[in-house]
Amino acid sequence: MQGQDGGSPTLEQVAALAGVSRATVSRVVNGSPKVLPDTVAAVERAIGELGYVPNRAARALVTRRTDSVALVVPEPDSRVFSDPFFAGILRGVSMTLAPTSSQLVLLIEPAEGDDQRLLRYLRGGHVDGAIIVSHHGRDNVLQELAHLPLPIVFSARPLGVEVPVASVDVDNVAGARTAVEYLLSKGRRRIGTIAGPLDMTAGLDRLTGYQEVAAEAGMAEAVAYGDFTADGGEQAAVKLFAEYPDLDGLFVASDLMATAALRVLSELGRRVPEDVSVVGFDDSVMATTTTPKLTTVRQPIETLGARLAEIILAKIGGADLTSPEIFSTELIIRGSA
Amino acid sequence: MQGQDGGSPTLEQVAALAGVSRATVSRVVNGSPKVLPDTVAAVERAIGELGYVPNRAARALVTRRTDSVALVVPEPDSRVFSDPFFAGILRGVSMTLAPTSSQLVLLIEPAEGDDQRLLRYLRGGHVDGAIIVSHHGRDNVLQELAHLPLPIVFSARPLGVEVPVASVDVDNVAGARTAVEYLLSKGRRRIGTIAGPLDMTAGLDRLTGYQEVAAEAGMAEAVAYGDFTADGGEQAAVKLFAEYPDLDGLFVASDLMATAALRVLSELGRRVPEDVSVVGFDDSVMATTTTPKLTTVRQPIETLGARLAEIILAKIGGADLTSPEIFSTELIIRGSA
DNA sequence: TTGTACGCGTTATCAA
DNA sequence: TTGATAACGCGTACAA
Predict the structure, then answer these.
(1) Best residue in B65, B82, B267 to probe A by mutation, most A CBs within 10 Å?
(2) Nearest 10 degrees: CA dihedral of B94, B98, B103, B108?
(3) What confidence score (pLDDT) does residue A1 get?
(4) Confidence label for B116 from pLDDT (cuts 50, 70 and 90)
């Protein structure tokens, strides 16, 4: 039907067909208000007939805007893709960007230590802005990212970055507090926790929430550390219950680790929730695949992703946003506590 | 340290600093063999000093190559992002593309029926090729995608497309056969299945595998349909066991639906695997979060993704690949059968 | 309201 | 081996 002459049609060809100049076609394409209705109609007809699509490269060259934003994963470990959190963020971001003219390009650190490649790309003006899905904080990449001359927003308060930056996150401390306080309200008196790595805000803050409530209730701490994987959760659970056999409550910093803990408890012959009540964090799909179903702290991940996209779009548009935005969590009560 | 004069440095500036012409710098950047070593050294020093990065837009404009490939989800339903299958594909694709100069652009259908936007984008020369993660087959979008004047590869044989196209998939029929035959080998004689939607190859082919074995074994079919979600799996399981209470074996077309079936069986008071043996499909994370753990058919998803990327890169490079590539599955035996 | 003409940063062709 | 110079397709002063 169209484009049969090899390359895509150009502004020039549309102009010829519509009987106007390139400039006028350009105006119509970009919605300039100062074009006669008749002219607009003629041009649009020509555009439709030819199936014209603006050449992004040419446009970017002159406007110095690429109409694309990067979703950056500054870690070579692509396991993040399997993380339900990442999936939710991706979903929120892409749903928000879809109706926009902006495209989403996925950037992942190609190999351990190859930060420079990422930074050069970002500095090269190939994208208008970047959303950083930062997990591990100690990385000095975050520092460099934060200082890039480019609109940037982080999916979580970047650990170790001192300058003010835009970020979107959930109140992990409060979420953890809710979980532990709920356990307390159910009469649990000896509550332990499986924490995440302390170089991630999610690990750090959720542990802090637990510690705060423990201190307030005069309860001794019982902590084991996992790495947010099923295996790590299993090992932590085994260790925790070997060390503190009298635990009657357990707050786990992620649902995935919680499912592992549930299995360990089952093998240990401890009934859930009768002997030990368990609360997770995330409210991911897995929370409903276990028996009993998992009571967990829900975070509005997709909303976080959507907001991330809104912020980067706003910053690209010139808005000056450089502070964290915190969303609240919600306790979802199911069978495990 | 660099780029302090506003925009990124250009070829021109590098040339000035190195005392050569733009053309020579361009040659060095693109690794032309016909440049004197001394000149190369001088140019590279200038590049390093200025922190020069080629302008992608300008380059794309003249070479007519964008160095980017699209990962297309031709459905407005962004739930796919939460699908472990999609995550694995994304992982394989991005790992393969990362060391390359190619960027990955994520394209999702913005709204129901807005196929045209997607097609125009793809036709507009914004990417060099596209990987289509097609789930639902009846969509006529697939037809149009298959006929695009652009290197294309599908993540599964696109249902309803008659022309030869490149695709990468697992042998779903054989995988399902393995599962059902295994159930048979364990002494199960009354085996039912929870199938996926018939407009997806995964749904269709896995059902076919079940039906083949059932026919060969002279076993009556017992089929219920789910939609690859937990809720759908639950409803299908309820319906199936209401209709066929004597089932002693169950093959479920996806792990997620299998976890739901496991819960239903538990509520029905049927022990797994003693009363009913269950086999899933995928070997996703959830397969190990259930009690008992799920015996399932594993597909090498990440490998599929990697191959998808290799194929699209090859096609962009001129290779003529237009036939399906089929990978095999593997039965992972755990506790449920 | 519309058209002319220039420049965006690169690559590629052709001379030198 | 290197250097001018002409495209590539588009936006936008500036002029008409």
Answers:
(1) B82
(2) 10
(3) 38
(4) confident
Alpha carbons A86 and A84: distance in angstroms, whole number: 5
Helix (H, G, I), strand (E, B) or coil at B146: helix
Identity of the residue numbered B272: V
A89 three-state secondary structure: helix
Does any CB of chain A come closer than 8 Å to the CB of residue B149? Answer: yes
Find residue B297's DSSP bridge partners: B281, B331
Residue B265: how many CB atoms within 10 A of its CB? Answer: 20
Q: Rounded distance, CA A248 to CA A262, Å?
A: 13
- Of A3-7, A283-287, A312-316, B333-337, where does mean pLDDT reach its minimum? A3-7
Contacts of B322 (CB under 8 A, 6+ apart): B164, B165, B166
- Take residue A298 and report the two structure tokens written for it: 């829900």
pLDDT level of residue B113 (50, 70, 90 thresholds): confident
**B223-268 pLDDT tens trace:** 999 999 889 999 999 999 999 999 999 999 999 999 999 999 999 9
Output the CA torsion B176→B180→B181→B182 (10° steps): 100
In this predicted model, what pLDDT tens digit does every residue of B215-225 receive, in sequence order?
Answer: 999 999 999 99
Cross-chain CB nearest to B82 (options A64, A91, A149): A91
Please say if the pLDDT value at position A111 is more than 80: no
Query: CB of B138 within 8 A of CB of B159?
Result: yes
Single-letter amino acid, residue B5: D
Cβ A103 vs Cβ A127: under 8 Å: no
Q: Hey, CA dihedral for A110, A113, A118, A120, is it positive or negative? A: negative
- Say whether pLDDT at B6 is over 90: no
| Through-space distance between the first and last CA atoms of chain A, rounded to whole angstroms | 62
Give the position of tokens 């509520």.
B267
Q: What is the mean pLDDT of chain A?
A: 92
The pLDDT-based confidence of A5 (bands split at 50, 70, 90) is very low
Q: Does B245 touch chain A (CB under 8 A)?
A: no
Closest Cα to residue A298, out of A84, A81, A78?
A84
- Is it the case that residue B3 has pLDDT exceeding 80? no
DSSP string, A170-192: E-HHHHHHHHHHHHHHTT--SEE
Cβ of A263 near strand D (distance < 7 A): no
CA distances from B192 to A92, B207, B214, B242, B313 (A): 38, 11, 9, 12, 42
CB proximity list for A141: less than 8 A, separation 6 or greater: A74, A109, A115, A118, A119
Q: Is the CB of B16 under 7 A from strand D?
A: no
Residue B67 near residue B101, CB atoms below 8 Å: yes
| pLDDT for A169 beyond 70 | yes
Strand partners, B131: B71, B153
- Three-state secondary structure call for residue B121: helix
